[in-house]
Each structure stands twice: as structure tokens, then as C-alpha cells.
Amino acid sequence: MQVTRRQFFRICAAGVGSSSLAALGFAPGEALAEVRTFKLAQATETRNTCPYCSVGCGLLMYSLGDKSKNTETAIFHIEGDPDHPVNRGTLCPKGAALVDFVRSPNRLKHPEYRAPGSKEWKRISWDDAFDRIARLLKDDRDKNFIATNDKGETVNRWLTTGVLAASAASNETGYVTHKVVRSMGILGFDNQARV
Amino acid sequence: MALQSLDIKARSATTTPPPRARDPIHVAKLIDISKCIGCKACQVACMEWNDLRDEVGTNAGTYDNPRDLTAQSWTVMRFSEVEVEQGRLEWLIRKDGCMHCEDPGCLKACPAPGAIVQSVNGIVDFHQEHCIGCGYCITGCPFDIPRLSKKDSKVYKCTLCSDRVAVGMEPACIKTCPTGALVFGTKGDMIRHAEGRIADLKERGYANAALYNPEGVGGTHVMYVLQHGDKPELYANLPKDPHISPLVSLWKGIAKPLMSLGIGLAVFAGFFHFVTAGPKEVEEEEKAD
């Protein structure tokens, strides 16, 4: 297309003129706007308990997808459970940051074993872990169990092994854990919830 | 019917009036400084909800972390150690962030259509897809809140969780607050709640306890209960009487209309000259160009 000098000036003038008209308000934008879409609308909601301290706050965990067969779920948001009597929806800064704890590359996801003197942690199966714990418990209890004291009174103590339980357990789990540990004679028994 | 979840009250650099028939409830966040323990759960919940992560900062000698608001940290606890009177040290902790002014200086200063939007319920929201990164909102804000992101040259600040409020939920910071220092509800309810707190504080010896809801910006949708309401500057320089910078009204109120008038006059003069004098005759030798 051939454009003479004068035609070029005319095109430029028309362009400046029309954009100026828009600037004067003859072509205003519509006074509409939309907010960011609510990201939890159809996410899967799961209840849980905060793993940190003894307060035991209730959590709502939101994960990707609706649990249909072809979806790999992933937790992307955690907030307090408003129906939980302990925290009624609130969370402290550690609890509020739980989604990064869940997705941390350093999170422990399976049993690991470090042999005495070794620097290496080795992954083992749950079966191996349970077998090893049971074996060591049995050996230690057989060797060190105290059935009676000096005066001949029955005491049934086992003082060489201790148990530390987790805080995120329910009342029912706590009751059963207590019964199992005490019935074996263990006195050194504490809960991470007290820390 | 507008396809939007919140009714619009004002939109930056836009002259078309928004739909005005409906009047939804006006919301507000109340920050009771006397109840805040500075745990920063609100900072964490804000980042978590809004999918932001700030860099791990360095210690500057105070508990402020990060040291200032950033494009990734829309709220920051500001810790002030103040000797309110001889021998009486107080640790005043103020949650800083957008105040959601009824008369927002950022929106007035913004030249990009639709980059800043005020909802009828009181939320002032930034829409980054329309933001041109000029930073005029930072000049326009009486509280120095918006922050320009180095990543994408767009400005970010607290949205009052407009996406949560739009579906009837409370903002993330309010929900997480373990001490109940943050409260959310209608603006009227929040003023009533504050009155109860102020009466309580006055009984406890804080004679000047007051609500911070500054008139200079038409009132705010984020309000403070201050123990020392007569001296808001004690709380990390909270302005006593905030006003929109006169530069904004000079530019938008005087310079911009003058410019529009100038352009209009030039167009009119050109058209008038064309009608009266007609187009310039083209010389024969020039036609060959």
C-alpha cells in the first residue's frame, strides 16, 4: 500500500484524535469487577487434629479433587475447624502454617532405622519396624521385669523401657494406649502433648 | 445484572456509574490492640490463604518480621516499646495492613481503569490484571500500605479476603486469631463491639481508650481499639488525622480536567478552522512527493 506524506499525517491525526476522545470519557469501561474465585468451593474437606501441642486444635484440611477414581488428592489448604470445641476455628501461627508442614520435603513419611554407631537412616517397612520393636520390648521385659520388691510384695514393674505417645490421638486411642502400656508394667510413660 | 459476586461502589479511572439498586451489608474488621499478643498467626493465615510466601528475612533488632509490608506480606505486626509515662513501659503491638477506607486515596489516584475497585460492602480490592504498575496508589495511600512487586511490577495489598467475604465467610486472619483480638462483622456491630471494649479499658485505667475510625478518609472498614486513643502515633506512627495527599487532588482534580479541556479545545479549533478556512490547497510540485 502506498501512503503519501500527507496521507500519513492524516492517519496520525485520526489516531491521536480518536484516542483523545477515549481519554475524554466517550468510551468508558464498564463499572464491573470480579473477585478471585473461592478456592475451596468443591474441594474435599477432611477433619483432623493439629499434631503440634497439647491443646489439640481441630483442623479442616482441603484437598484437590472430589476423591473420584482418577484424581490424585493433594492437600492445598488447612484452617481451623469452627465446630471443634477446643479452638472453634482458631489456630496459632504454627497451626496456621500446617500446609507447608504437610508438603515439606523433610517430612517423615515412613519408618526409618539408624543402626547403633551409624550415621545413615535406612528406610524399613512397617512390618520390620513392628517386629523389631516387639522383639526388643520382649527381650528387655524378660530381662528386667520386677515382679516383687524387697519385702516380697507384688509390684509388677518394668523400669527399663519408656513410652512417649503422640498428641494428635483421640480420647479413645489415648485410653487404649494407656491400658496397653500400663498392663505391661511400664512406669516411664508420657505424652508429647505435655511438652 | 452484573456478573460479579460483590456489588461495585467505585472503580478506578471509570466514569460509568455502577449498578446501585442493591445495598448489601457493610463489613468491617476490628483490631483490638489491647487483646493482641503479637503471635503473628494472622500473618501466617494471610499468606496461607492468599498463596503467598515471603522470603525468610533477617533480624533487625525488633520482633517485626518481615520488617515491612511487601507484595508477599500483606499484613505485618508492628511492635512498639513505649514509655507511656515515667516508669511505665508498654508493649504496643499493631497489626498493620490496608485500612479499607470509605474514601480510598489509592482508588482516586489510580489511572488504570478497573485496577482498583471498591465494593459497596466496603472492601477496596486491587485487580492486578488491570494494574499498569505506575505506583500512584502508593502516593495516594494515607497509610503507606500498597507495595509494588519486583516480580511482576504490579501492586499488592490486603483484599480483606474478598474471595471469602463474597461467599459469606470471614477473612483468614480473623478466623485464625487465637486471642479474639481480631473480630469481623457488620460495620455497625463492630462499632458496638468496640464500645464495649472501650468501656472495659476505661474501667481498667485507660482513660483515653478510643476507637480509631478516622473521618479524614471517610471512616475505615478496618478499625482499631486503641488503649491510648489520644495518641495514635504511639502505635508505630499510626497517623492521627489521615488525609489523602493534596498531590492526588491537584492531579486528578485540576491537572487532568485542564488536560481534557486543552485536548477538546484543540480538536474544536481544528474543526472550526477546517469549516471556515477549508483544507490547505496542495501545490502541484508537492503532489509528486
Descriptive labels:
heterodimer; A: 195 residues; alpha+beta; N-terminal domain of TfIIb; 2 domains; three-stranded antiparallel beta sheet; three-stranded mixed beta sheet; 5 helices; 32% helix; B: 289 residues; Alpha-Beta Plaits; four-stranded mixed beta sheet; 11 strands; 18% strand; elongated
Fold and architecture overview:
The complex is a heterodimer of chains A (195) and B (289). Chain A has 195 residues and is α+β, with helices and mostly antiparallel strands. Chain A has two domains: 44-102, N-terminal domain of TfIIb, CATH 2.20.25.90; 112-194, no CATH class. Chain A contains five helices and eight strands; from the N terminus they run αβββααββαββαβ. Chain A has helices spanning 5-26, 93-96, 98-102, 126-144, 171-183; strands spanning 44-49, 58-63, 75-80, 112-113, 122-123, 146-148, 154-165, 186-191. In chain A, the strands form three sheets. Chain A has a three-stranded antiparallel β-sheet with strand order 1-2-3. A three-stranded mixed β-sheet of chain A has the order 6-7-8. A two-stranded antiparallel ribbon of chain A has the order 4-5. The longest helix of chain A has 22 residues, at 5-26. Chain A is elongated. Chain A starts with a helix and ends with a strand. In chain A, 10% of the residues are buried. The mean pLDDT of chain A is 90. Chain B has 289 residues and is α+β, with helices and mostly antiparallel strands. Chain B has two domains: 8-243, Alpha-Beta Plaits (2-Layer Sandwich), CATH 3.30.70.20; 247-287. Chain B has eight helices and eleven strands. Chain B has helices at 41-49, 105-109, 136-140, 162-165, 172-176, 187-203, 246-277, 284-287; strands at 8-11, 27-32, 76-85, 88-96, 116-119, 124-126, 147-148, 155-156, 182-186, 210-212, 222-226. Chain B has a four-stranded mixed β-sheet with strand order 9-2-11-10. The termini of chain B are far apart. The model of chain B has no long low-confidence stretch (mean pLDDT 92).
